[in-house]
């Protein structure tokens, strides 16, 4: 859900001159996202949105993410949702079960994101092992990946 919301935020700020968090919150709600002010504030920080001077002389939210970064994130989300079947973790290893033949592609897409706290990955035909720095990181990563599947 978070990735979809981030994609929508980037779409909204590219198509509209949005000046405030309140306006962004309102536009997200109009688009069907039930979010709070705190969530929008976190999203702005995570997306590293900045305020730039618009042609009309007012400041508006803009993204300093390169279009390629947004595309990689979107491609990962699409591929992961279509590939992953089950996610679990044990200690500092996250195990992602995929449809047969899909694990390598999903793992390569995951690797392109340079996820914080990940040491490395290993993919087979239908399984991805993700080695993290700690059990806490594994648990958070598992929950984040599971949210993508919702």
What portion of residues belong to β-strands? 15-25%
* Unreliable segments of 5+ consecutive residues: none
Shape: elongated
Gap from first CA to last CA: 7 Å
Radius of gyration: 17 Å
How would you classify the helix and strand content by structural class? alpha+beta
Number of helices: 6
Topology order in helix (H) and strand (E) letters: HHHEEHEEHEEH
- Report the sheet with the most strands, covering strand number, pairing sense and barrel closure: 4 strands, antiparallel
Fraction of helical residues? 40-55%
Number of strands: 6
Mean pLDDT over the residues: 87
Q: Can you lay out the helices and strands and say which pair or pack?
A:
Blueprint: H1 2-15, H2 21-30, H3 37-46, E1 49-53, E2 59-63, H4 67-83, E3 84-90, E4 93-98, H5 103-111, E5 118-123, E6 127-132, H6 135-149
Antiparallel strand pairs: 1-2, 3-4, 4-6, 5-6
Description:
This protein is α+β, with helices and mostly antiparallel strands and 150 residues long. Helices cover 50% and strands 23% of the residues. It is built from six helices and six strands; from the N terminus they run αααββαββαββα. The longest helix has 17 residues, at 67-83.
């Amino acid at each position: 859900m978070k990735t979809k919301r981030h994609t929508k935020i980037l779409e909204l700020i590219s198509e509209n001159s949005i000046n405030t968090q309140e306006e962004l919150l309102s536009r997200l709600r109009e688009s069907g996202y039930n979010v709070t002010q705190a969530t929008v504030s976190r999203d702005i920080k995570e997306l590293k949105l900045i305020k730039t001077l618009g042609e009309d002389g007012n400041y508006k939210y803009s993204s300093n993410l390169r279009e390629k970064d947004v595309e990689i994130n979107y491609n990962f989300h699409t591929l992961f949702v279509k590939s992953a079947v089950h996610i679990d973790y044990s200690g500092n290893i996250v195990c992602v079960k995929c449809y047969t033949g899909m694990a390598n592609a999903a793992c390569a897409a995951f690797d392109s994101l340079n996820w914080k706290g990940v040491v490395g990955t290993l993919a087979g035909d239908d399984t991805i092992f993700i080695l993290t720095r700690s059990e806490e990181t594994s648990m958070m990563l598992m929950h984040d990946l599971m949210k993508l599947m919702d």
